[in-house]
Specification:
The complex is a heterodimer of chains A (285) and B (332). Chain A has 285 residues and is of the alpha/beta class. Chain A is 33% helix and 27% strand. Chain A is built from nine helices and 14 strands. In chain A, strands 9-8-7-10-6-1-4-5-11 form a nine-stranded mixed β-sheet, sandwiched between helices. In chain A, strands 2-3 form a two-stranded antiparallel ribbon. In chain A, strand 4, helix 2 and strand 5 form a beta-alpha-beta unit. Chain A is globular, with a radius of gyration of 25 Å. Chain B is α/β, with parallel strands linked by helices and 332 residues long. Chain B is built from ten helices and 17 strands. Chain B has a seven-stranded parallel β-sheet, sandwiched between helices. Chain B has a five-stranded parallel β-sheet with strand order 13-12-14-15-16. Chain B has a three-stranded antiparallel β-sheet with strand order 6-7-8. In chain B, a hairpin with a 5-residue loop joins strand 6 and strand 7. In chain B, helix 3 crosses helix 4 and helix 6 packs parallel to helix 10. The longest helix of chain B has 16 residues. The radius of gyration of chain B is 22 Å and the shape is elongated. The termini of chain B are far apart. The chains are: A alpha/beta (285), B alpha/beta (332). Strand 12 of chain A pairs antiparallel with strand 8 of chain B, so a sheet runs across the interface. The structure holds flavin-adenine dinucleotide and adenosine monophosphate (AMP).
């Protein structure tokens, strides 16, 4: 049996939040957690392997490190077809950077899934976009890894991966156990994610079956503190805005557009490489 | 152990003509090195890489560490990461910078893990403070804030930088540099990942990075259908079209139109920005836009504050209006 572990992150919906049509600001108060889109693709890849009779029996475990609320994405993954969900949550894990996240996920896989054959991650999460957790988890577990997969092909105890990196189309191969990250780019539509109906998630909620583990259950050291263990420190957070003394136009659209071309048409026409009629021209004539 | 302070730039030359990122980082490293008398070094791995070594010296590298061996002919992230970590342990640079190509994004976190040090991804700027600390400046959560990050104790201080963030120095044929050859270590592990095929794809000629006029559209365009109008305008103005991340995620346009930290950096003479709020991940790529026209219903949107001319209006109406105006005013 092939045991696939899919690492799933819960991310805030911030950048896809609705905006207030009146004020034009984001409705941050409606921020909710959602499944990181690239993790969702990784799950999709696992589900497709499982659905393929040629793969033989497959078992999918989804794992997430995060606050208790991250349980939601695990329920969703269960509703989509994952066999088991595990949430790694503990106050000592708060503030984990990518290295610590990889360490914690690694401790779970090493200590609790000794039969893991294939580990799947998204290539890049939507809230931090570091693209670090996958490669660092492979280091942690000391297993081979291939990044940015667009297509997976399971062989006999090995896997072939088609990928697109830096303008190269590549075909790679490695023995299992191994780790693959699934390309987050929208063009790789083979693993375009599927969604569940609300009813499906509710059903999964009722079946339960999300295991919760803290640092002790994982086998982390007593004094472990992810935030303290992080080698980087934030010194300062600031707003980078360098404002221009720009000109603000309001009123009727036609008038604004005319002002734009009358007063700045020269700049635009020289960038276009074509002549435009502007005020200045009229005066010239 | 070297007594001198060194800033290392990992040299990614595989797709040299498309990606000039190594040269760009060398340029910034040269400025940083002036602040604390450090030496700028490039690190080159591969098989017969002489021409790249010369090129990096011409672009600012004062020293080049080279491991030239047939074993390194194909880019293999495991071997390269092992080797880079080994060199860092031996020569102990203070700082290690890596271009955020996809390959760079794979090798950097692995090396950071092997060396137990920190890594800041996708810096929009770098600085060196008076305590010789690399200040890693990167967008922080949410989108309108920037964080200054340091690595207080662990070394080297590592950062990745997206292509286009800095500008390369002109090629200087007279520049000289020291070349240090490092033999492949005896304990190189056998590669566990096999590369069966690797083909360079012809690059499609999208020239948004170099276009003189760029038209960007955001979520404020409203729908995929309405967004299309920007292409009509682009054709008239001889411009290229770019987009923000939500637009790309919603599949209104393809991923390679993404402008921002995760996408393309642009340097147009004129930028038209329609229905874009101006989150830092987007505006980080606009620093070199010379003249900005922004359209937004909300006069307080960040994008409007960055504009030379800000039109408080509906993006679609203005787009239509500009199309009409250009047609009327154009002289062939
Ligand atoms: C790690 C990370 C990396 C990211 N990388 C990138 C990146 O590379 N590039 C990028 O673009 N984003 C990136 N983002 C997303 C970024 O934070 C913003 O969410 C995004 O840029 C917002 O896009 P937008 O301006 O189109 O949408 P919104 O923020 O929703 O803004 C829409 C704007 O349209 C205006 N508007 C609404 N209706 C109208 C109308 N009818 N007429 C005129 N104006 C109207 C509104 O007032 C508002 O200002 C990244 C985010 C993260 C977390
Ligand atoms: N807290 C987490 N829990 C589970 N998986 C994670 C977590 N953080 C990151 N990952 C995985 O690593 C991938 C890349 O994330 P990142 O390095 O943050 O860009 C994600 O798509 C997930 O598959």
């Amino acid at each position: 049996m092939l045991h696939i572990i899919v690492c799933i992150k819960q991310v805030p919906m911030v950048s896809e939040l609705p905006w207030d049509a009146k004020t034009g600001t984001l409705k941050r108060e409606t921020a909710q957690g959602m499944m990181d889109p690239s993790s969702r693709r990784a799950l999709e890849a696992a589900l497709q392997i499982k659905a393929d009779p040629a793969s033989g029996p497959v078992r999918i475990t989804v794992v997430s490190m995060g606050p208790p609320m991250a349980k939601e994405v695990l329920y969703e993954a269960r509703a989509l077809g994952a066999d088991q969900g595990v949430l790694l949550t503990d106050s000592c894990m708060a503030g984990a950077d990518t290295c610590m996240t990889a360490m914690i996920l690694g401790a779970f896989i090493r200590n609790h899934c000794p039969d893991a054959g294939l580990i799947l991650c998204g290539s890049m999460s939507s809230d931090s976009e570091t693209a670090q957790v996958g490669p660092q988890l492979a280091e942690e577990l000391d297993i081979p890894a291939i990044g940015y997969a667009r297509r997976l092909e399971l062989g006999c105890r090995c896997i072939r991966v088609a990928r697109h990196v830096d303008d190269f189309m590549e075909l790679m191969e490695m023995d299992l156990p191994g780790l693959v990250t699934i390309d987050h780019a929208a063009e790789s539509d083979r693993y375009a994610p599927r969604y569940v109906t609300l009813g499906g998630v509710e059903a999964a909620f009722n079946t339960g079956g999300i295991q919760v583990m803290d640092g002790r259950a994982l086998g982390l050291e007593k004094e472990f503190n992810a935030l303290k263990a992080s080698p980087t420190k934030i010194m300062e957070v600031y707003s980078p805005l360098t404002q221009k003394e720009g000109r603000v136009l309001t009123g009727a659209v036609k008038k604004m557009v005319d002002t734009l071309f009358d007063d700045y048409g020269k700049i635009i026409s020289s960038a276009m490489g074509k002549d435009l009629k502007t005020h200045d021209h009229e005066e010239d004539l | 152990m070297s007594a001198e302070k060194q800033i290392w730039v990992w040299a990614d030359y595989r797709n040299y003509f498309q990606s000039r990122v190594t040269l760009q980082i060398l340029a910034r490293a040269t400025e940083l090195a002036r602040k604390n008398d450090a030496v700028v070094c490039a690190v080159v791995f591969g098989d017969r890489v002489d021409e790249y070594v010369t090129e990096y010296i011409a672009h600012g590298a004062q020293k080049v560490y080279v491991t030239d061996d047939p074993f390194l002919k194909t880019y293999n992230v495991e071997s390269y990461a092992f080797l880079l970590s080994a060199l860092v342990r031996r020569f102990q640079p203070e700082t290690l910078l890596v271009g955020a190509t996809r390959f760079g994004q794979e090798i950097a976190p692995r090396v950071a893990r092997q060396l137990n040090t920190g890594l800041t991804a996708d810096c929009i700027d770098l600085d060196m403070d008076d305590k010789d600390r690399l200040v890693q400046i990167a967008p922080s959560f949410g989108g309108n804030l920037v964080a200054k990050i340091i690595t207080p104790k662990a070394r080297p201080q590592m950062a990745t930088i997206r292509p286009g963030t800095f500008q390369e120095l002109p090629h200087d044929d007279d520049a000289t540099g020291e070349v240090i050859s490092v033999a492949l270590p005896d304990n190189m592990p056998a590669p566990r990942v096999r590369c069966l095929k690797s083909e360079l794809q012809p690059v499609h000629a999208r020239k948004i990075e170099t276009a003189d006029i760029v038209i960007t559209g955001g979520r404020g365009m409203g729908s995929k259908g309405k967004f299309k109008k920007l292409f009509d305008l682009a054709e008239l103005l001889n411009a290229e079209v770019g987009a923000t991340r939500p637009v790309v995620y919603a599949n209104w346009v393809s991923h390679d139109s993404l402008v921002g930290q995760a996408g393309k950096h642009i340097r147009p003479k004129v930028l038209f920005s329609f229905g874009i709020s101006g989150a830092i991940q987007h505006t980080a790529a606009l620093a070199d836009a010379r003249f900005i026209v922004a359209v937004n219903k909300n006069p307080n949107a960040t994008m409007m504050k960055l504009a030379d001319v800000a039109l408080v209006a509906d993006a679609n109406q203005v787009c239509t209006g500009i199309i009409r105006a250009v047609k009327e005013r154009i002289r062939d």
